[in-house]
Amino acid sequence: MKTKLNGIFTLLLAFVVHLTFAQEKTISGTVTDQQGVPLPGVNILVSGTNNGTQTDFDGMYTIKGTEGQTLVFTYVGQKEISKIIGATSSINVTMVEDAQALDEIVVTALGIKREKKSLGYATQEVKGDAVSAVKSNNFVNSLSGKVAGLSIKSSGNFGGSTNVVIRGNNSISGNNQALFVVDGIPIDNGNTNTTGQQSGTGGFDYGNAASDINPDDIASINVLKGAAATALYGSRASNGVVMITTKKGKKNKGIGVTVSSSITLGSADKETLVKYQDKYGAGYGPYYDSADGYFNLYDVDGDGIDDLTTPFTEDASYGAAFDPNLLVYQWNSIYPQLDTYQQATPYVAGANNPNYVWGTSTTAVNSFALDGGTETSSFRLGVTNLTQSGNLPNSSIKKKYHFF
Q1: Do residue 112 and residue 241 come from a single domain?
Q2: Residue 321 domain flag
Q3: Cβ burial, residue 102 (10 Å; 0-12/13-18/19+)
C-alpha cells in the first residue's frame, strides 16, 4: 500500500512540474527613457527570484518567466517600474525620471550617470542655471568660487582668455588647462595667444575655445578631479575634466518654447582707480634747460628766440607748477591734426585725466529655443544673440550661438 501511495505522489509531482514548465515562456522587449532613447544597463528581475538580466546597448532584453509573475525594472535616476507577465510575450517599458534620485546623480567619464556616493573619486556638479543667470561672453568666468579646487584665472582683457586649472599646476612649462568635454566631444581650452601676449609685452589675446560655448544650452557641468576620474580620456585629461551636458528635447504636448532676454550694465569702481594730481606738469624736477630748470628750450617758431617746451620725453609729473599766465609749447603743439599745432598755450592741467576713458559697459543677450519629442525621438533648436560693449571706447563683441 505504501509503495502505491509513493507512486501516486511521484506522478502528481511530475504533473505539477510539467504544468509549471509548460507555462514558462520567453519575455522580450525594449526599455527607453522619456525621450524614447534606448537605455542600456537597465536591471530586470523576476520578483521573488534570482532570475534577472540587463538591457543591451540598444535597450533590448530577454528573460524567462511565467504568467502572473512580476518583472521589476530599475535604473539609476529612474523610478522603479513593475510589470505583470500576461498572455503576451512582449513587454516594452518607458522609464520615468525620479527627481529625488537625480539630485544624487552626476555625469562621469564618457557621459555615464552614476550615484555620487558610489564614486571612488572626487567630482562636483554645477547646474546650468548657475552659469547662465548672469550673462557673460565667457561662461567659464561664472564658475569662479563654485567648485572646490577649481582655479579660474581671467586675463582681464575684454573677450580675453580664461585659464581653468584643477588642483593646481602640474607642469612648469607645459599646458595645465583642464580638458573640456561637451556631450562626449573633447575640446582643447589651451591658449592660442601671440608670444608677446604670453610674456606680457603686448600682442593679441585670442581667447579660449570654451568661450564659444553658449551658457543657455548647458544643462549641467561636472568637474572630474584626479587620475581615476579622467583615465578614460587619456593623457590629455591629466589636468582634470570639465564635463558639460547640454539641454535636450523632451516629450511634451506640442512644442515647448523658451524665450529669455537680459541686459547687464557695468562701470569701473572709481575707488579702485589711480588718483591723479592736477597741480604740477611733466618732468622729474628742475633738471632741464630753462632758468628755473623745469622746461626745455627750443626755437619752435623760428624767430631766433628759444621757447619754453615741456619735457616731451619724460613720463613723470614732478615738473613746474601749472600757471595759466605762462605760455608753453606742450603736447598739443606737436600734432598737425590739432588747431593748436606749433602754438604756445597756457600752462594748465588737462581737462581730463586718464580715468575719463572709463565708460559704462552693456551686455545684451537674447535667446530663443524650441524643443519637443515623441516616444521615439526628440529635438531642441536654439539660437542666442550676444552683443557686448566694453568700458573702454571702441571695444565690442558680437556672438551668435546656434544649437541643433
Answers
A1: yes
A2: no
A3: middle
